[in-house]
Amino acid sequence: MIRWILQGILRDKNRxxxxxxxxxxxxxxxxxxxxxxxxxxxxxxxxxANLDTGHLRLVNKPFYDEEHLNPMDRALTAQKEIxxxxxxxxxxxxxxxxxxxxxxxxxxxxxxGETKSQTPIIxxxxxxxxxxxxxxxxxxxxxxxxxGRLPQGPKEILLGYELxxxxxxxxxxxxxxxxxxxxxxxxxxxxxxxxxxxxxxxAMDKKMALIxxxxxxxxxxxxxxxxxxxxxxxxxxxxKEYIHLKTALQSRLDDLILNPPADWAKDDLPIVLSVLEQxxxxxxxxxxxxxxxxxxxxxVLLMVLVLWNAGLxxxxxxxxxxxxxxxMGQTHWxxxxxxxxxxxxxxxxxxxxxxxxxxGVVYYLQEVGINMGDAFAQTGMMMNDVMRGRVTAESFLxxxxxxxxxxxxxxxxxxxxxxxxxxANLFRELEAG
Length: 433
Known about the structure:
Elements: H1 2-11, H2 13-53, E1 56-60, H3 61-65, H4 79-89, E2 95-109, E3 115-126, H5 135-138, H6 141-144, E4 145-148, E5 156-160, H7 161-167, E6 174-180, E7 186-197, H8 202-207, E8 208-212, H9 213-219, E9 228-232, H10 242-258, E10 270-274, H11 281-317, H12 319-327, H13 332-367, E11 370-371, H14 373-376, E12 386-387, H15 393-415, H16 423-432
Parallel strand pairs: 3-8, 5-7
Antiparallel strand pairs: 1-9, 1-10, 2-3, 2-6, 2-9, 4-7, 5-8, 6-7, 11-12
Helix pairs in contact: 1-13, 2-11, 2-13, 2-15, 11-15, 12-16, 13-15
């Protein structure tokens, strides 16, 4: 029977082409939209992780509670011991990198050595000089430079391009940083401006500066001390895995807290955070999931309504055929089952075509992307300038499932009209035709 149904679908375009196109269009739209939304969302997570929080973050709780003040005296000491502990106790796919968050007053002198401009800035210290460091790639600094070069030696600094305009500072000029040392004193040090960076996040372009980790440890008296350990995960790892990795690491951290390194303060209490627990991303996750469900639900409802009406129109043209089948001994329920199998076949074929079209567009966006830097330049959101899609199994399931369900439901609703007409009437319509 299935072979006969497939032959009928392929030979009679009047009853199969329109439902096929509806299912194909709906599935392609779902696959594309969900894949593009996933790409934007994961792009925002990865950008936030690379620039700020890491996918996982090990930080001293007293520092985290007052993070907006950059309390350097609450940073975690024993950098070498913690690195060793993380390599032995965390998941192998997590790449850990030490960073220092710092805040300071940037003072730019004029030709007479007097203050020409001055402003508070926030900064990040990371490993910029080691040949095996991945930090340059994570922040995409080579492509983000608007002018100048990357640091190649000690006491060199990168400024956000908007910050450079505010300070009216040029390349190779010297600026003085005035901040807080690890022991609560005043830190002052001179740095040479070697380049300007466009982070793609307005707030960071306006206030952010980058220096090498060892320079920061020297300037702020933080030998063997960092404020953060950031863990980075491969792009294929789903955001749903972050909480499991975090929970596993936090459970092992309890043993370290009971037997802390000798250099730790008595009230040091390291905690593990995922990127979703910071910068209000957990609320964005809830909104994203809700929007995705609403969108898929609307598409399914529209497809069901369209296919229902298509089934009714198709059924009117097929009353003669159905009457003949009833006259040959078929029951109403068998005809309903036959029409459901027919709709299922159309749904499968349409879903397959929709997956190929929608998945192809999403794959193109994943590999090439769309540059929307101008649209997001002033938003302050941590989003990459290039918007990309993300090919996931979930997007295909969300497309195929509704495509098949809508096709079958539309057929079942339309077949109800079959029970409202007698066999004699259906057969007379065949004779009239």
